[in-house]
Design brief:
alpha/beta, seven-stranded parallel beta sheet, six-stranded parallel beta sheet, 18 helices, Rossmann fold, globular
Length: 488
């Protein structure tokens, strides 16, 4: 059922990815580690056929178990590096200032309680940023480890050589297994080698440290999987955060001890997905402890009344990979049509387009900007989302988390739908505001014709938003929040 929970294009990339998860998950939970690399690198191909070769029926499982066993027996008898918390940030989104603020504020909270912390990193930008931002007097309780650099040169060569063998075996096995289902694997064994080496590097370093709790920004980050494995072997707790809107099946399986979600909507949806994944694949090491905590990255400031601003905020989602993966072409075209209609409305003073951080400025937007230079504004993803929300009356988008933030901030918000378009049940609490471009236009005309109607719509929007973002609030990094990490 998992694939049917979403409305992806039939026989598209998303279906190929979910089927790959199912096939590999049934074989070995270790292959979960590769899911984040497969998501945009598999597709259906009718011309594929599996190759008959005995080595293609072998993967690197036995070899990796032997290596892990050998690493474990080299564990020092007296471990001096003991931490209360190991923290693994999300390197792929760390360049964003809100991510940096989240990590630094979390570290401040833990250091104020005199905990000893180790931050795992892959790039110097993480320790450099933390050292620059932190002003806590307990900075001596903070350590940094880059596992790939914390290995002696001769051991590094050995681990890289072993990683190459395991990666070749895994690649041939996976490619052949997926080919049996007409799924083409569009990556090289070199990428798998990097993943395997990263995992073994962590295991090598982890044998010399102890920790009580591991905090993972996202479950599918490169170091998250081996950290979870180490914690599981040692009977330690792992805690992860929701990254964004649950828009595809990469968000499962959730295998940490405790998972912190934005609100009840995501908690319930993830539990359903997790149980389905377990039932389909037979994997039993899944999370059953989901806690709601509110928005994690974005600020939420309730707008009292933005009726007089008469400004429409369009939250873009035209990222190439998402357009192809989620099948967004019809929705993006409908959004363009809606934009043109909004620009000619006399009762609307301005339309702001806020691009996705990974999107390019489209030719269509530039054309509209040239035609309506005073009425259309192109915002920037580096601007605070709160700034664009503060100066808008209404928000429109597809399935953006920013759109849910706009709704939780009190803007009447609309999720644009077209026949048979993509949508995710994670946002189903907003279904009454999921409309066609014509319905959205007519509804905006109506609520912008009367302040009373506008405020009534604002009230109903805020009510449903509380289901998505707990109480329409951002997390407060205080002692109550800290208890989510500490309590059993």
């Amino acid at each position: 059922m998992m694939f049917e929970d979403f409305s992806f294009p039939k026989k598209g990339q998303a279906e190929a990815f979910w089927l790959s998860q199912k096939i590999l998950g049934e074989v070995n939970s270790r292959f979960n580690y590769y899911f984040s690399e497969l998501i945009y690198r598999v597709k259906f191909s009718d011309s594929l056929s599996p190759k008959k070769h005995i080595l293609r029926n072998l993967n690197g499982d036995i070899l990796i178990k032997i290596i892990i066993f050998l690493i474990k027996i080299k564990t020092p008898k007296n471990i001096t590096d003991k931490f209360d918390f190991v923290i693994n940030p999300s390197f792929c989104t760390f360049a964003r200032k809100p991510e940096q603020e989240l990590l630094c504020n979390l570290l401040e909270l833990l250091l104020q309680e005199d905990f000893k912390i180790c931050v795992i990193f892959r790039d110097e930008i993480i320790p450099r940023t933390i050292k620059k931002k932190l002003i806590n007097t307990n900075i001596q309780n903070l350590s940094f480890i880059n596992p790939e650099d914390d290995i002696e040169s001769h051991n590094k060569k050995i681990l890289k050589f072993i990683s190459k063998i395991i990666a070749k075996l895994d690649y041939n096995y996976i490619a052949n297994l997926l080919a049996q289902h007409k799924i083409h694997l569009q990556l090289s064994s070199d990428l798998l080698q990097t993943k395997i080496y990263t995992m073994l590097a962590w295991f090598w370093v982890a044998r010399k440290i102890e920790f009580d709790i591991a905090i993972l920004r996202v479950e599918w980050e490169t170091y998250s999987f081996p950290i979870k494995e180490t914690a599981r072997w040692r009977g330690k707790r792992t805690i992860a955060f929701q990254h964004g809107v649950i828009s595809h099946t990469l968000d499962v399986p959730v295998t940490v001890s405790r998972f912190l979600t934005f609100g009840e909507q995501s908690a319930k949806f993830l539990q359903v997905l997790n149980q389905e994944f377990s039932s389909i694949t037979g994997q039993t090491n899944i999370c059953n402890d989901f806690r709601v905590c509110g928005a994690i990255i974005d600020d939420i400031k309730i707008q009292t009344n933005n009726f007089e601003k008469r400004t429409i905020l369009i939250l873009d989602q035209s990222v190439d990979r998402a357009v192809k993966f989620n099948g967004l072409n019809s929705q993006i075209k409908a959004l363009e049509i809606l934009l043109e209609k909004l620009l000619i409305q006399a009762d609307i003073d301005k339309v702001i387009i806020r691009p996705h951080p990974e999107a390019k400025i489209s030719d269509f937007w530039i054309c509209c900007k040239n035609n309506y230079p005073e009425k259309l504004e192109l915002s920037h993803s580096q601007f605070k989302l709160e700034m664009d929300i503060n100066r808008s009356s209404v928000a429109i988008g597809l399935f953006s988390g920013a759109l849910a933030i706009a709704a939780a901030s009190g803007l009447p918000s609309y999720w644009l739908r077209t026949p048979d378009c993509y949508h995710t049940p994670d946002l189903s609490c907003f279904d009454e505001f999921a409309l066609s471009e014509n319905q959205i236009l007519e509804d905006i005309k109506q609520i912008m014709s009367s302040e009373m109607l506008y405020l009534k719509r604002q009230e109903s929007t805020l009510k449903v938003s509380k289901v998505y973002y707990n109480e329409n609030k951002k997390i407060s990094l205080n002692r109550n929040f800290l208890n989510l990490f500490l309590e059993n």
